[in-house]
Design goal:
The protein is of the alpha+beta class. About 40% of the residues lie in helices and about 20% in strands. The protein has three domains: about 150 residues, Regulatory factor, effector binding domain (Multidrug-efflux Transporter 1 Regulator Bmrr, Chain A, Alpha-Beta Barrel); about 70 residues, no CATH class; about 130 residues, no CATH class. It starts with 7 loop residues before the first strand and ends with a strand.
């Protein structure tokens, strides 16, 4: 049986790791660990763990099998060595098998689901990863008795990462004085800060940013850098097809035609700017959206940002500047395909009372 479901938070330090990264399914992780052990066994300094970076449109996971190591190891044959950044983590434990087709509640996927649910209920923002599975006790200690396996799950928390990205963007595009002014009070924010208090700080920070930086495009660039990191596997796949097909329009047709492509739909709008692509952001919480009975509930269910979703529910006003963060998701996608600079404008936003979030994307000339 699983341990009693308990969630903790901890700060994890930077770790020197050796790893093997692959595109595939979680069931393949063990094969890569066996290969990795042959290369780094004398230097292993702790339990092995898997990093889950993303999932590509075709369903493959971007996974890395890793060991912490006591010193740098020689690279090659698929093995790399680097320092894995630490951070603040949301954590829980899973006791039991990784997979059990006869009882999904005993699988590690069930514990992952409960942890994501815990975060969603409390509006705790989670980063894009990598998510971590640390194999504390497995077949080495318990052989085939998988009911005794113990795995720690760690997900990096978004708030400290987001604040760091905002601070860096302010430094880069507006300077140290503006950064100090806009970030004032952020040192008092933590994952334990209540949602209303967090919302109050964000509203004030956006007001201070609007007052300190007159140029709208500069404000947009600052906020673009705060966005989640678009999955690299998806960018690589789209860039490969763009290079093969030779034009953005041909790439858009491939996205529409390929059943494996489950990403956003980008289109030219006959009523919009002929030089722009338009995209409507997918609904963040489809179940809540379908169950919603009011416009406010529907807009809150559409919103992807746990930092400001409460503003929609309370009809609180936050500067449109904030949604430059959401626009940054598409900036990174398209710049990864065709190269910089890509400009993404917020056309509609549920935070501002619109029915959906819609963006206009301006690409460099092909």
């Amino acid at each position: 049986m699983n341990m009693t479901f308990e969630v903790t938070r901890k700060t994890v330090g930077d770790t020197l790791v050796a790893g093997m990264r692959f595109a595939g399914q979680p069931q393949e992780v063990g094969d890569y660990f066996r290969k990795l052990v042959e290369r780094v066994k004398p230097h292993i300094a702790g339990p092995g763990f898997a990093l889950y970076h993303s999932i590509n449109p075709g369903g493959d996971h971007d996974i890395e099998a890793c060991f912490p190591v006591s010193e740098p190891v020689s690279e090659g044959d698929g093995v790399t060595c680097r320092t894995l950044p630490g951070g603040e983590m949301l954590c829980t434990f899973h006791r039991g098998p990784y997979y059990n087709p006869d009882d999904k509640e005993k699988c590690i996927g069930s514990t992952w689901g409960r942890l994501f649910g815990y975060a969603a209920e409390r509006e705790l923002g989670l980063t894009e990863g990598p998510y971590r599975e640390i194999y504390l006790e497995d077949d080495i200690q318990h052989g085939d008795d998988s009911d005794k396996y113990v795995t720690e799950i760690q997900i990096p928390l978004m708030l400290p990462v987001w604040l760091g990205r905002l601070s860096d963007g302010l430094d880069r595009h507006a300077g140290e004085d503006v950064r100090r002014e806009v970030m004032a009070g952020s040192e008092n924010l933590s994952i334990d800060t209540s949602v209303p208090e967090r919302l109050t700080w964000i509203k004030g920070a956006m007001d201070r940013l609007d007052a300190a930086v007159e140029d709208e495009r500069t404000r947009a660039r600052i906020m673009n850098g705060c966005a989640h990191i678009f999955p690299q596997m998806t960018i690589d796949l789209a860039r490969k097809e763009y290079e093969r097909l030779g034009s953005v329009d041909a790439l858009l047709q491939w996205m529409r035609d390929d059943p494996a492509w489950t990403g956003a739909t980008f289109e030219h709008d006959p009523d919009g700017d002929p030089n722009a692509l338009y995209v409507e952001k997918v609904i963040a919480n489809r179940k809540a959206y379908d169950a919603a009975t009011t416009d406010i509930e529907k807009r809150a269910a559409r919103c992807h940002c746990p930092f400001v979703r409460e503003a929609i529910r309370n009809e609180a006003k936050i500067s449109p500047t904030f949604c430059g963060c959401g626009a940054g998701w598409f900036v990174r996608f398209w710049e990864g395909i065709v190269g910089p600079p890509a400009r993404v404008d917020v056309v509609e936003s549920v935070l501002q009372g619109d029915d959906a979030c819609r963006f206009a994307i301006y690409l460099p000339k092909e």
